[in-house]
Amino acid sequence: MRYDRDKFDIAVVGAGPAGSTAAEAAAKLGADVVLIERKREIGSPVQCGGFLPEVGELRDLLPSANIPETLAEIPERHILHRTSLQRIYAPSGKAKEFPVRGRVVDRRGFDRDLAWRAARAGARVLVETRAHLEGTALRLSGRTSGELEAKVVIGADGPSSATARGAKMAFRQEMGVCLEYEMADVDIDPAAAEMYFGTRSAPGGYAWIIALGEDVANVGVGARSAYLHGKRLRDVLDTFIRDHPIAKEKLQRGEVTAVMRGLVPAGDMPPAIQKGNVLLAGDAAGQVMATSGGGIPLAMVGGLAAGEVAARHIEGVGVLRDYPSRIATEMGKELENSVRIRQIVDKMMKSDRLMDALFAMLPPDQMKATQRGQIPKALDRVQDLVANR
Ligand SMILES: Cc1cc2nc3c(=O)[nH]c(=O)nc-3n(C[C@H](O)[C@H](O)[C@H](O)COP(=O)(O)OP(=O)(O)OC[C@H]3O[C@@H](n4cnc5c(N)ncnc54)[C@H](O)[C@@H]3O)c2cc1C
């Protein structure tokens, strides 16, 4: 199908949390917006665990960010489950826990709702359409074909962003590879979101059990290729479920009812998130907490900023360079710290003995701070120790 229009103020590539948030924000400010998504069905297949901190936790996590209303007040129908604590297991099996109020959202419904909101705000939506940036034009293929011109292009097209490549903004980003099973009939703690560390269970990352209900959970592993030494991720996850001394007691009887996989940027900051008339938001811009791989909140904060800055630029009351400054103010420190923490922990992750030692040094409140991208004193000491090895 050829499209009836070929000029827009703003084209947003990708209708994930970043893209739909950007499209809604820009359309609400009066811009003429098109939102382009390659999937046939926005939000599906799901490639995510859907775990999000409650709004109070988010405000502590990103104190300077403008939290979109759609992130603060998620409709109850998209919330599958609520958790109240985070439990972290060292390679030795010792656990520490701290309170974290969390929501597990149904990403399929949640992403669709965000796209519906963008449409209601006036954005045109093109599904099953792939966009590729070539010079100043977006070449479309799939359900809609042809070329579009836009005064601003927002690349919200995920971790392997074609828009970033087209704009020559792509950078060497280390990626985590994630595999996750939804499992039913498991014997878990329904109040907990759990992380497990260890060279066998999760080389260069962590494994997780996130309760989705009384006896249903998302069970996954995120690892990095450099640490996998040729092992298949599927074997790593299956071994975790079958052999981990603690996890196996919870998961052994479970049945896998869904399989999800995908890439997560390891959080390295790109050299630029704005170049000419192109802005990058969400995973495409590395807006991910490197300490956890959690990207939904940051993608939505990034999307809101990108959409608003782009619309103001169209109105003639702002410039696109405002976007990187706004991101730096709203989440720059947290992003930088989380990468620094990841770099320190990376060195420890090569050895279970070192990870056990790090775990012993951090009391639960400092562990929580670390997860939030704050660098507690104990971690600074660890950094000195590692530097002197
Ligand atoms: C297995 C797994 C589990 C995860 N669990 C969690 C979790 O529990 N909590 C959390 O906060 N984060 C989690 N994440 C990370 C989270 O999913 C991402 O950070 C988040 O989805 C980023 O949103 P986004 O809008 O930037 O990108 P995406 O959600 O990836 O959306 C990008 C969209 O762009 C579309 N697209 C790509 N290229 C094109 C193109 N050329 N043309 C048109 N459309 C295109 C894609 O189809 C996609 O719909 C997980 C990731 C994985 C892989």
Characterization of the model:
The protein is an alpha/beta fold and 389 residues long. It has helices spanning 17-28, 55-61, 69-72, 107-120, 162-166, 225-228, 233-243, 247-251, 296-315, 322-349, 352-361, 364-371, 377-387, and strands at 7-13, 33-36, 51-53, 79-89, 95-105, 124-126, 129-134, 137-142, 146-155, 175-184, 192-196, 206-211, 216-224, 255-265, 274-275, 278-280. Strands 1, 2, 6, 7, 8, 9, 15 and 16 form an eight-stranded mixed beta sheet that branches. Strands 3-5-4-11-12-13-10-14 form an eight-stranded mixed beta sheet. Strand 4 (79-89) and strand 5 form a beta hairpin. Helix 9 packs antiparallel against helix 10. The longest helix is centred in the last third of the chain and has 28 residues, at 322-349. The N and C termini lie far apart (62 Å). Flavin-adenine dinucleotide is lined by residues 13-19, 36-39, 47-52, 130-131, 156-158, 162, 178, 180, 220, 260, 262, 264, 282-284, 288, 293-296, 299.
